[in-house]
Amino acid sequence: MKIDFANLKYQYTLYKDDIDNAISNVLDKSNYIMGEEVMILEKNLCHFSDANHAITCGSGTDALLLAMMALNIQPDDEIITTPFTFISTAETIAFLGAKPVFVDICETTYNIDISKIEEKITSKTKAILSVSLFGQPSNLDEINKIAKKHNLKTIIDGAQSFGATYKDKQEVHFCDIYTTSFFPAKPLGCFGDGGAVLTNDETVAIKIKQLRVHGQNKRYHHKYIGMGARMDTIQCAIVDVKLKHYKKDLKLRQDVAKKYTQSLQNKQLILPFITENATSTYAQYSIRVKNREEIQAKLKDKNIPTAIHYPKPLHLQEAFKYLHYKEGDFPISEKISEEILSLPMNPYLKNDEIEYINSFL
User: What whole-number distance in Å separates Cα of residue 337 and Cα of residue 341?
Assistant: First the structure.
């Protein structure tokens, strides 16, 4: 048996006619930048999430940058976030000259430990940037309490979590700005790079729309220093097709996760933990093991692909050496990074494939 990690090709075959027609329509109109499909997708993202505004952009990284630029983050400002995430979360803070201030993670959810946030707040702190790692929201009520108490803005890095809920609502309703990614392997992915920013704040939305087209408020008139951060029309057309099927695919992902959990619960493994008031998109199904290299090698030999999300926390990355963090500063993040292992996860994983994976764990 040969297992496909994300099974993107199979998904394409399922929706091939609609996707091909959507691409063909864009080609016929030849309006590749800011064509009508961009606005159609944004409208449908709002409908799906109940957000007031959705602004597509070039990637999940662009989405984070646009969010911070909209909040006027300046050099030497500080943003509190987690070191156990993909580098974009903190890289974008540093790119603007601001300082990422790391807080360790919770050992069960792998999201930011809310009990450690307040001690990191200073007069320079401007925002809390939580990450919905592997598709599960953080403790958003507590984050918002802290933010309100200290007059801080809240951003959610939802690159892996579009469609997840917190207290039966989408995450955009628990923050100032929500960002997501449509990277192909994400639960809702395009066929290249893409992303979106969602907000209920009209002023913020207007500014982000201008920032993504070089700060223009009308053609060749630039109100802000912005960036070229548009999501191209073809990618928007593709995501819009997949969005029509997304509730079904999301349910299938969650069903696969349940089957994994039932299958693996008697093993000597630490399985994903989802809090009672949240749902997860299961962007990854990540377990924890002590002998990771040995298990990875055994699975690879049986044509079972795996991935490590993530092998080195950000505070130990060479790129952030200037922050002067050291080994031991965030022990939970360091511990998880040595044990985490992502198994194949996609909506179409079959029961016999899950049992096949289980037999080698």
Answer: 9
